[in-house]
Sequence to fold (263 residues):
Amino acid sequence: MKQPKHFLWRAEGKVGVVTLDRPERKNPLTFDSYAELRDHFRALAHEPGIKAVVLRGEGGDFSSGGDVHEIIGPLTKMTMPQLLDFTRMTGDVVKAMRHCPQPLIAAVEGVCAGAGAILAMACDLRYAAPSAKTAFLFVRVGLAGCDMGACAMLPRIIGQGRAAELLYTGRSMSTEEGHAWGFYNAIADPVLPPAMQAAHALAEGPTAAHAMTKKMLHQEWNAGLDEAIEMEAQAQAILMRNQDFRRAYEAFAAKQKPKFQGD
Fold:
């Protein structure tokens, strides 16, 4: 993949790493970085060599969200069509993250606020340092908590009542709360090594199956149980035709560890 202009990208074997890289401002997001993140996550669908992705921030913070001067200020002067173009673009970042086949892992430390908290929320797994302070603080700038899918996703992760409190108040969720509530999968200091370890472990697994799991986790939100069971029946039948399924059986029969290749 080409090197983006507004964040850093590197591949470490089968694992890609996206680094938000404006540490002097706590890695805020801009019009350009939103658009480039959207395009980058869309492009990952066409990168079969990348099997998992870690999202992190440089300099001890994850992301402070939309830049006050570069985004919020200009938004106050826009027309309704321009505003709607912007809000749809930011939502498209989350759509791109949820639709890219690779599992996404957020490695969060320090400030994780506003749209930064949304980026963490949109990942499949989240690891946090003790320093992480996560806030969905849209109410602090006079906006609703329903930003970039927050009202749909956050209650599913931590529960309706907890999500409502965070979205109404904009207060910070501590790392301990986030872990107890299921927002964070683990707490670690430093946080990047275990996040990378998890990504590499996923990358060595049956990645076609991981992509199907991610797809079903997303699609079944709006499905009834009977429909979901049928969707999963079809998904598993498809994967049973894959070579990784055969490799797993043959390795089991030979009392060996399977070597998955993602096909």
Summary: Residues 207-253 form one domain. The chain has a mean pLDDT of 93. The CA atoms of residues 101 and 164 lie 30 Å apart. Residues 80-99 form the longest helix (20 residues).
